Amino acid sequence: MRVAKRTRLWVTLMPVVSAATLMLGCNSAGKHANSMTEAAPDRVTQQATLKAPPIPEAGPLARPRSLRQVGVPDGATRAAIPPDNPQTAEKIVLGQMLFFDGRLSADGTVACSTCHDPDHAFTDRRPASIGIKGRVGQRNAPTILNALYNKTQFWDGRAKTLEEQAALPIVNSVEMGQPSLDAAVARIATIGEYQQGFSRVFGRPPNGPDLLRAIASYERTQLSFDSPFDHFIAGDKNAIDAAAKRGWELFNTRGRCNKCHALSEDKRDVTNFKDDDFHNIGIGIIRHNVVSLARQAEHLINSGDTAAIDRAAIQTDMSALGRFLITKKEPDIASFKTPNLRNVMVTGPYFHDGSQETLWDVNDHYNKGDGLKNPYLDQDIQPLALTEADIDDLVAFLASLTSADYKEQGIKELARQRELSRMKRPQRDTARAFGSKPLQPKPPLP
Ligand code: HEC
Ligand code: HEC
Prior knowledge:
Elements: H1 2-23, H2 43-49, H3 74-79, H4 89-99, H5 112-115, H6 162-171, H7 181-188, H8 192-202, H9 208-219, H10 228-233, H11 242-252, E1 278-279, H12 290-303, H13 306-315, H14 324-327, E2 336-337, H15 359-367, H16 388-399, H17 407-423, H18 430-433
Antiparallel strand pairs: 1-2
Helix pairs in contact: 1-4, 4-9, 6-9, 11-16, 15-16
Bound molecules: heme C (2 copies).
Residues 110, 112, 114-116, 129, 131, 137, 139, 141-142, 144, 147, 150, 153-155, 162, 165-166, 169-170, 175-176, 215, 313-314 line the site of one heme C.
């Protein structure tokens, strides 16, 4: 029954979408300078470049994805489609055009795809994104693959839905730089293709809410499963190697990863590896005095001005406050959303600030229970006493979460990261990893 239902919906949709996609001229497999074989740019080159890359075109990896991939959660996928924005083939095509269109930005140079490039698993492979006029933000661009399953959007969850989310980058002055959503709509409304598209899909001229609906519909076609791990869970015992199997065990036991990267911490979550929650895991905490920042932020939060909070999160040091910027609750200081770990091999660098370059660095961070001197550190962060072999196994497991579409990139990136990790392990601290849990300082009095 379950399979039959799922198949029906997509079988009716797929041919229409692909045909329509071609018709609307999203044709060439656009490639641009940054190939996956090159090293991801570091902060220094990024600052020196000061120019957003050319807008990626909608190549083969931009296409809506099949619902029949091994591992797709049927119910959750259906539940992710809001009743007031049902998926239709033509709406998805319209959303795809908008996602790749620089004309949504103030000077025509930046599209959603600039920072969410399908050839890079819908990320930009930079620590922090470059937007309009080469402006650099504070945060790492997450993938939009499987974002349909997020209960909140952004690292701090400041948007609830994909529709709500899409409005913010358009008006953020370091991203797409429009003075208002209406300004973007006015630009789009001068283009014949869009006049016809909106009229066909929504039966009215271009307007803000419909524009956001179309983009969100396109994003909801980007489900990404069909990884070696999914085949393993589906019963193919040889789909992942012994190291990845040991890594999966560690993930759910001594590594304590499932405390957060699972919907229920006493279960094994094989779907999205997240808990729909926020935690302070000690990222970037040393570089910022979060307590004094929190004091400064309170006024801003009280204003309830969404665009101003978006600016603070993307453009100022207050970015480090994370979830606190939304809730103003002290324990949320420097808490960030637990990200889905699917395709993590090809979506680095890691964490909300893109501060870690390899999955070895990420594991070294957890292994030493980093976050000393951080009164808000999550209680589940503690020294793990993982050996080098354990860490290699965890990386092997994480690499097994790469979808078939990104298989080649995953292999190259794993090799690149392994090479890097042999040269430098900036986060490794074996003494701390095998030591006892340090005494956590108390939060300062209000
Ligand atoms: C200049 C780069 C840039 C542009 C342009 C951009 N984004 Fe993003 N995107 C980001 C960054 C950085 C974040 C994380 C910001 C944060 O969490 O505060 C993000 C977050 C998101 C998220 C949340 C994903 C998650 O897991 O929480 C979605 C969805 C998204 N962007 C979609 C879009 C759409 C749709 C557009 C076009 C309307 C767009 N982005 C334009 C950089 C960009
Ligand atoms: C206490 C909760 C918690 C535990 C335990 C935990 N994580 Fe995380 N994980 C998070 C949060 C929250 C983030 C995002 C933090 C940030 O960016 O500030 C994250 C980020 C990551 C990332 C970066 C993903 C990205 O897209 O940038 C990886 C990889 C990761 N975790 C793997 C692991 C592994 C492997 C373990 C076990 C060794 C683990 N996590 C244990 C909560 C947790």
